[in-house]
């Protein structure tokens, strides 16, 4: 039996919808409730998940929940958290999020819940898609995904263990970092690749998009994530801007090295440079 | 019935091997011969393709062929072409290649065949993989791939039409460009994405490769081609260095724009920048 009795999901997009599907599959008997801002979104949830309680009434959704997951864009989280803490919360409530940036989120949300018996603890399941919205949600989105938890000195007793158990039941591999380590790590492994896909698309096609007629798998894969939602990604990159800028500066520096090798025709150095990248990329297990 | 009677393939790697498989599937009745530099490679070909004549004897392989395909790294092509032209060549022989760079290749190879009745005409099927070697060859590698042909004022009568027909039978969509237009186009759509995948890998992992434990699909896809063969890619990038440097300089310039938006916290400009990339990337049909 699950230690969670009732799970409240705030905002039914790709991640929120995939959470509902996965919890229903993997945690039978646990009640799931969904809060959405708009009536239309509530109707969509009710149509897709007939067994789920869905409402625009935040107080009704959070009442009695043992776990609440914030799945809206990061910038809206503090406002929702302040509405939440004014409600009647269960003593054992853990509030977490699924946001891609942690430093600022944890710094803002943790103090909001500090005076209550509930507590905030950040989560970041490394799962997503260039597609967004409830319609793209999947029951296998979290399967074998890394999920980073970001406990702090203020994290309440028992919360870390319960949250680990929850994400593990959903199929995730758990990692723990401070919010700052998290932001450094995901800038390198997620935000930088996103930026590079965007830059590759622009540099390849801005002058003349007809070159697209000759494209093959290399262009397709290298630029796939540039099809992601611009509003969501503008929020993420802006929130993590210091770490993102630092990783982009490292990319600019290796770019200049590469240009230098080509201009001086140093084929031997170029071969070593490409071999170093290959050795690093080959560390990733094949799927 | 095919207009080609006997097709000679020089070097049985990923592309050479995939050519043998595809020709056997799609052009039944056409003789296929394979030349390899090493005895071991000849044996490997004979084991994989019992109906194919394979030899290290270049003169024997080219004799009577109506089409010869050069599939070795670009830098070895002129040497092989000079050995070829000293042999007994059929009057209707078309020599082509599958190399990723055309300006220098065409400038070197076309004059070698000019005095003979045979003629050179460049081809570039936009098909490949991060994996190389005969063992990875596939009968569907060319299916719906773009294939760029690079005729010049010296291209002999009838050769362009025959070569179009050949690649179409293999499943390719044909494009025609000058060798210079080709090198500009593939620098943007293929060589730049390759470089960006390499740079993303290095900038993400050089400092601390443990961030790889948190990687997801974005890093995987954006960096996939960085696993390609360093020797082959050093040759390609070096041969097309002027166009590659120019596209890298464009990438550096959009990179600096992005850093500037983040540093000045211009979220509105960032959103437009990401939306522009998304609009361009969305032009690519979904697979």
TrEMBL record, chains A, B:
**Pfam families reported in the protein's UniProt record:** PDH_C, PDH_N
Q: Which Gene3D superfamilies match?
A: 6-phosphogluconate dehydrogenase C-terminal like domain (1.10.3660.10), NAD(P)-binding Rossmann-like Domain (3.40.50.720)
Q: Give the PROSITE patterns listed for this entry.
A: PDH_ADH
The entry lists its GO molecular-function terms as:
NAD+ binding; prephenate dehydrogenase (NAD+) activity; prephenate dehydrogenase (NADP+) activity
Keywords in alphabetical order:
Oxidoreductase
Q: Does the keyword DNA-binding apply?
A: no
Membrane-traversing stretches: none
Query: Which terms does the UniProt entry file under GO BP?
Result: tyrosine biosynthetic process
Boundaries of each Prephenate/arogenate dehydrogenase domain copy? 5-287
Q: Which domain of life is it from?
A: Bacteria
Which InterPro entries does the record match to this protein? Answer: 6-PGluconate_DH-like_C_sf (IPR008927), NAD(P)-bd_dom_sf (IPR036291), PDH_C (IPR046825), PDH_N (IPR046826), Preph/Arog_dehydrog (IPR050812), Prephen_DH (IPR003099)
Name the record gives this protein: Prephenate dehydrogenase
């Amino acid at each position: 039996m699950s230690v969670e009795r009732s799970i409240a999901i705030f905002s039914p997009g790709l991640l929120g919808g995939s959470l509902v599907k996965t919890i229903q599959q993997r945690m039978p008997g646990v009640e799931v409730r969904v809060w959405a801002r708009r009536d239309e979104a509530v109707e969509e949830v009710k149509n897709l998940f007939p067994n789920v309680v869905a409402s625009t009434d935040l107080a009704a959704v959070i009442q009695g929940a043992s776990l609440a997951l914030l799945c809206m864009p990061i910038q809206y989280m503090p406002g929702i958290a302040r509405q939440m803490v004014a409600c009647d919360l269960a003593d054992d409530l853990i509030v977490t999020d699924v946001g891609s940036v942690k430093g600022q989120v944890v710094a803002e949300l943790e103090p909001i819940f500090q005076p209550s018996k509930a507590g905030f603890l950040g989560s970041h399941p490394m799962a997503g898609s260039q597609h967004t919205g409830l319609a793209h949600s999947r029951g296998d989105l979290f399967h074998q995904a890394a999920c980073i938890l970001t406990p702090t000195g203020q994290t309440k007793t028992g919360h870390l263990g319960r949250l680990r158990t929850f994400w593990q039941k959903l199929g995730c591999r758990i990692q723990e970092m401070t919010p700052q380590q998290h932001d450094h790590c995901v800038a390198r492994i997620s935000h930088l690749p996103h930026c590079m896909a965007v830059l590759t698309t622009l540099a390849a096609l801005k002058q003349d998009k007809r070159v697209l007629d000759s494209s093959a798998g290399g262009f397709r894969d290298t630029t796939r994530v540039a099809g992601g939602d611009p509003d969501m990604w503008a929020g993420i990159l802006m929130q993590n801007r210091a770490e993102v800028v630092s990783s982009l500066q490292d990319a600019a520096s290796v770019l200049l090295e590469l240009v230098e090798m080509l201009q001086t025709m140093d084929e031997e150095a170029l071969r070593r440079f490409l071999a170093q990248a290959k050795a690093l990329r080959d560390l990733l297990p094949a799927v």
